Amino acid sequence: MVAESDVITLQMECTLFFENNPYALETSTGMSKRLGRNANLIERALNRLTELSILEKNGQGTRAIYRYKTPYIQTEVDMNAYD
Predict the structure, then answer these.
(1) What's the mean per-residue pLDDT of the chain?
(2) d(CA 83, CA 31)
(3) Cα–Cα distance between 27 and 83 in angstroms, integer?
(4) What are the residues whose beta carbons fall under 8 Å from the beta carbon of 10, sequence distance 6 or more?
(5) E strands along 23-64, which residues?
(6) Domain extents for the chain?
(7) End-to-end alpha-carbon separation of the chain, Å?
(8) Tell me, what DSSP letter sits at residue 54?
(9) Could you report the per-residue pLDDT of 13-36, keeping only the tens digit for each?
(10) Where does the source fall among the domains of life (predicted)?
(11) Where are the beta strands (DSSP E) in the chain?
(12) CATH number of the domain at 4-68, out of 1.10.530.10, 1.10.287.3610, 3.40.630.30, 1.10.10.10?
């Protein structure tokens, strides 16, 4: 049985990896090798990050490729829209 806190910790580690490597494309197997963690646990964390729209997933199962989904940041506000 895996504790929920372990999955949350892995989510944070995966998020940090992808934030620091925004152009990386990785599988759950590749991430498990990079982080030295169990591939099934990594896959759970990556899928949860996909559900939260932090990562984008292409494909299914162990061959799925994950990548960072850059957050949308609005830098200017059109004040005329509020008139």
Answers:
(1) 89
(2) 49
(3) 48
(4) 35, 37, 41, 42, 44, 45
(5) 25-26, 55-58
(6) 4-68
(7) 56
(8) S
(9) 999 999 999 999 999 999 999 999
(10) Bacteria
(11) 25-26, 55-58, 65-68
(12) 1.10.10.10
Could you read off the pLDDT of 39-69 as tens digits, one per residue? 889 999 999 999 999 999 999 988 999 999 9
- The whole-angstrom separation of Cα 80 and Cα 34 is 49
Q: Which residues contact 2 (CB under 8 A, 6 or more apart)?
A: 41, 44
Joined tokens for residue 41: 């646990």
By three-state DSSP, how is residue 60 classified? coil
Query: Tokens for 67?
Result: 């990548």
Cα separation values, 56 from 9, 69, 83, Å = 19, 6, 37
Amino acid identity for residue 83 in this structure:
D
Place of tokens 């197997």: 29
